[in-house]
Amino acid sequence: MKSFLSPLLRSNPPPFALTNTRNNKIVAQTLLTAFDSASRRKGLLDHDSLPDQSAMIIAPTSAIHTFAMRFAIDVMFVSRDGRVLKVRRHVKPRRLAAAWRAFAVVELAAGAAERSDTRPGDQLQLTAP
């Protein structure tokens, strides 16, 4: 079954931005992906920060943890078609977060969800930067 993330699965995909279709704001311009088991387990654990306008997209998953992380993040739980189901802001290290029926998680720098005015019910899509 296809998802809104399918274009990222192509070999050598072009660069994409993640955009909120409700307000046309860019949520992230640099996308890091974790689509296999090893990269999903690693996620952002070896990072000291996540730059503004960057996002780690983890799929498939409906839950994340920040146990070994060194910084807070915003987390968006997204359905297969790109609809935002839940937003958790400023998730500190050593926490768990989950959303029933989520297909993917978008991890962002703390404050990014507010800056892009993204909330549950919004639709995310991949766009050319």
Helix content: under 10%
Coarse structural class: mainly beta
Strand ordering within the main sheet: 3-4-9-6-7
Number of strands: 10
Strand content: 35-45%
Shape: globular
Encode the helix/strand succession as letters.
EEEHEEEEEEHE
Residue windows where pLDDT falls under 50 for at least 5 positions: none
Oligomeric state of the chains in view: single chain
Mean pLDDT reading? 91
Helix count from the secondary structure assignment: 2
Nearest-angstrom radius of gyration?
A: 13 Å
Q: Largest sheet at a glance?
A: 5 strands, mixed
Q: End-to-end distance, in Å?
A: 26 Å
Structure description:
With 129 residues, the protein is mostly beta strands. The protein has helices spanning 37-42, 112-115, and strands spanning 17-20, 25-28, 30-34, 54-58, 63-65, 73-78, 84-91, 96-98, 104-109, 124-127. The strands form 3 sheets. It has a 5-stranded mixed sheet. It has a 3-stranded antiparallel sheet with strand order 2-1-10. A two-stranded antiparallel sheet has the order 5-8. It is globular.
Summarize the structure.
With 129 residues, the protein is mostly beta strands. The protein contains 2 helices and 10 strands. It has helices spanning 37-42, 112-115; strands at 17-20, 25-28, 30-34, 54-58, 63-65, 73-78, 84-91, 96-98, 104-109, 124-127.
Q: Any chance you could write out the topology, listing elements then pairs?
A:
Blueprint: E1 17-20, E2 25-28, E3 30-34, H1 37-42, E4 54-58, E5 63-65, E6 73-78, E7 84-91, E8 96-98, E9 104-109, H2 112-115, E10 124-127
Parallel strand pairs: 3-4
Antiparallel strand pairs: 1-2, 1-10, 4-9, 5-8, 6-7, 6-9
